[in-house]
Amino acid sequence: MMQKLEASRDDVRIAALAVLAITLHVMEGAFPSPLPGIKPGISNIITVVVLCQAGWEWAVWITILRVLVGSVVLGTFLSPTFVLSLSGACGALIALGVGSVFSRRIPILKLGPLGYSVLASGAHIGAQFLVAYMLFIPHIGLLKLIPLFGGAALVFGALNGMISVKVVQYLNK
Amino acid sequence: MKWRYLRNFIRVLAWSACSVLAACSSPEAPVKQQFYSFGTIVEVSLWNVQPAHAEEVLKQLQEDMDYMHETWHAWHNGPVSRLNSLLPHGKPFSVAPSVLPLIEQSKVLYQKSNGLFNPAIGGLITLWGFAQDEPPLGPPPTENEIKAFVDNLPTMDDLEIDGISIHSKNPRLQLNFGAYAKGYAVDMLMQRMREMGVTNGIINAGGDLRAIGSKGGKPWRIAIRHPQGQGVLAFVEIQGDESVFTSGNYERFFTYEDRRYHHILDPRTGYPAKGSTSVTVIHTNAAEADAAATAIFVAGPGHWQATAAAMGMTQVMVVDEALAIEMTPAMARRVQFPADPPPQVQIREPS
Amino acid sequence: MTFGDLLILLVSVGLLLFASLAVWQTNDTRPDRLVIASGGKIVSELDIHQDQVVEIDGLLGVSELEIRDGRARFRDSPCSNRQCILRGWVSESGDTVICLPNRISATITGVDTYYDAVNF
User: Fold this and answer.
1) CB-CB neighbors (< 8 A) of B8 in chain C
2) How far is CA B184 from CA B187, B191, C9, C85, in A?
3) Is the ipTM of this complex over 0.85?
4) Between B301 and which of B3, B93, B291, B320 could a Cys-Cys bridge form, CB atoms 3.0 to 4.6 Å apart?
């Protein structure tokens, strides 16, 4: 018997947010970046906003969907770029999960969108370096790039964070 | 975007930047001293040691060095030359305890290297003129002389040890620990350094070195000289407890009638080993690294992988006579080349 | 900005600075000086770009070291095997000429001491 698949309201919301994230991701992909691997990562704004508004599980859904579908759209699915993108996203999501637990349990450490954004971008770049070292460039010289990429992660993480703060403020008006 | 927000953010960044920079002090220079021993320059670098204590340590190391150099010397008067004068008689006699560990470990390493590391060929080394203070002038030994030696090649297996009693089954057996004593000495010196409370430093005996600890948290950066004598071929960063040993055909040699004869003899042929120009090994134990570098050098391009595996070496770099570079994967992960573009290398597993 | 945000920011900046300091070091390895040691102790540091000939006292006697066109060599030495002289000119940072019998060594050092030891 064929069951009728019904989309719940949450499913629809997740799908819509995912599409938004994917769109931002693909748009960003159209812009050339000065260095391979350095991107503003504006779709992460969606991740952080969703985390703050709807919780970690929603953020995970949106982000994973964004990475998977985004890579298909951009034609990088299953390529090394995709592996790095996925690793970064997983690293960021794990860090966000840990961060949100701490945030709940220890009131003084409560994180806002800015903190989450910087945490996510730092974990993202860290996870990418780890995977790059293990799979692609097992050479100590890779570590020399950490300050450069780390700096970019911090800057863009902070910028995205500030935008996220504004978005969350707007949504909660 | 509110400017106040941005301004605060920049303030936070600036404050943290200043505090981190203030916390990080620039590294001080190590205490360095050169000694003349083992027929070469031994440079000791000590990090984070009070000057008064450093003086003490250096003085003690000098004493140790002089003692070991003379005790293990292959041709100066001492326990080894006494041994060599008694061995040809074939009768058992007691060996000085200061030399016994050298002999015992050499036997083990001889086995592991499948004969490529063989300190029992002292007679051959003397034949070639390398067992003297002055560099040999040539001419090289004749084919017949070499053949006579190789046909009845003395090996470490010809030495029988029973307690402190030793005798040789081959009258031509003469011990020359040149390929090994430096490494062993470096291990002993490092032990002494540790006993005296030094946890960070380098002992560099004529280019072969062992380092412990680090330079205030930063790894020691060791340059590997280009085999052709000019500039730096590669460098590695080491810390913890590591030895870097290189055997090269440019260290001791003589030229006769436009041909160059170097001092690393192949026990199988009786002639200087062919194929390699330099071999660099990274390992913890300096004595094993010294012996392995020699054995791997003798094994040469195409055959060194088996020797490296047998001797337990995972980090090896071999430069052949055409200056082509081969290395193990573990070495490839850590060696860095300053030249731009870096040279091509071949990766080979030790097996 | 919450306190938690601030903490994350500070930690991130701290880590970044630490990583930068650890990874980026000046490495001007252009030849700069010739450091001469006799009997293990440094006796002279000369500008490698200034042509000159110096006499250094050693165990056996006086060795002559020459600097010319940014290169250095032993010009004369009281040793019998003359290996130091045969070595010829050296020109790059880290290169060393040694007269073992006379206990004299001369090493070219760069603007920054990039290497802690030379293996050969």
Assistant:
1) 1
2) 5, 11, 51, 31
3) no
4) B320
